[in-house]
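Example S7 (structure tokens).
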């Protein structure tokens, strides 16, 4: 059934229309469909087939939450289709697009108005697995080391690609904004201004004002540190949200199932969500060093480039503040009212992060706990 206890998605397809569309496309007879319970931004529907080349496929519909901070060109099924195709061609283990280069459409129902609307979607292959943070937590030390090494190699491979400017990408693989920042010292303060504006508009003006005041002092100081370090913060291909439930482990294979926020950012942006999801494990010891130290060494061995340690954690600190601002707006505006209760959690995290003077992995983990 295409229903959910939490109304995250006002627009879902009519089941009969979706079945007919999939069967007419030659995918096989549909015997079941259900909304993935962890879907939160975009409806992802697991389709069970009775025969054909595959027994399971996934229908991915239009994004219906987390719409506030991305340019319209960055929120499209066409962007997702093209990005999956490019990543798959580059050897990244992402779902295969099974429905061609263009989105499909069937009748749907808008739960808010009761009116019939078109539900646009595409079909992709099903990648099995367990969320990487759960898998790593439940593994022994040697398996943890293996998984962190594999993730480091995946990230390093992606980060070799350099874009024409900073920001989330569009369907053509370019930054989606009309005039993207080409330098990090322009992109970083602009991003803080944009996030503070969104927080003030959709969540809490006092938080937006407080962060803007904090960033006006902290960001220039970190940019000065960055310039003195000699590290070149280039716009590299970053998943942004490519960890936790968007990265699945099956046996020894790791797959990435959601690339909606992929774009060109400094590589430290990638490590913000990654560190937040697995901070407790990353700080644990393995053969005399932390798993974070192992991960960073493997990343560099695979060709990844990191700034000096002090600059690295200063940048991750700023990135964590931006991530929490993003999450604050996301939860405040979510279609599911149950998400609104998490806004207070984001407030607390932002306050804790702004209270940090010199960021270290241990201090950041404590601020985010």
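Recovered sequence:
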């Amino acid at each position: 059934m295409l229903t959910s206890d939490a109304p995250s998605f006002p627009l879902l397809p009519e089941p009969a229309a979706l079945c007919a569309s999939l069967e007419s496309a030659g995918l096989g007879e549909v015997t079941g469909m259900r909304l993935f319970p962890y879907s939160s931004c975009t409806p992802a529907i697991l389709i069970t087939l009775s025969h054909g080349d595959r027994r399971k496929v996934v229908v991915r519909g239009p994004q219906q939450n987390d719409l506030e901070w991305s340019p319209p060109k960055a929120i499209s099924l066409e962007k997702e289709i093209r990005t999956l195709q490019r990543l798959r061609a580059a050897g990244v283990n992402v779902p295969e697009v099974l429905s061609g280069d263009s989105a499909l459409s069937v009748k749907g129902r808008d739960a808010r108005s009761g009116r019939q609307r078109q539900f646009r979607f595409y079909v992709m292959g099903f990648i099995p697995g367990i969320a990487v943070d759960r898998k790593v937590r439940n593994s022994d030390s040697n398996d943890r080391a293996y998984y962190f090494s594999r993730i480091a190699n995946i990230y390093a491979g992606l980060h070799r690609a350099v874009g024409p400017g900073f920001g989330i990408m569009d369907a053509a693989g370019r930054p989606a904004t009309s005039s993207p920042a080409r330098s990090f010292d322009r992109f970083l303060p602009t991003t803080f201004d944009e996030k503070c504006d969104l927080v003030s508009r959709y969540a809490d003006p006092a938080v937006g004002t407080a962060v803007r005041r904090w960033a006006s002092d902290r960001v220039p100081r970190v940019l000065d540190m960055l310039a003195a370090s000699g590290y070149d913060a280039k716009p590299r291909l970053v998943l942004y949200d490519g960890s936790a439930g968007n990265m699945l482990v099956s046996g020894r294979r790791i797959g990435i199932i959601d690339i909606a926020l992929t774009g060109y950012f400094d590589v430290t942006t990638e490590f913000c969500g990654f560190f937040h999801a697995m901070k407790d494990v990353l700080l644990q010891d393995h053969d005399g060093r932390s798993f974070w130290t192992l991960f960073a060494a493997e990343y560099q061995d695979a060709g990844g480039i990191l700034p000096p340690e002090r600059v690295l954690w200063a940048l991750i600190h700023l990135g964590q503040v931006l991530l929490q601002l993003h999450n604050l707006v996301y939860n405040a505006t979510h279609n599911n009212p149950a998400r609104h209760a998490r806004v207070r959690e984001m407030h607390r995290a932002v306050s804790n992060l702004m209270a940090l003077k010199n960021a270290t992995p241990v201090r950041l983990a404590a601020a985010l706990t």
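Notes on this example. The longest helix spans residues 205-229.
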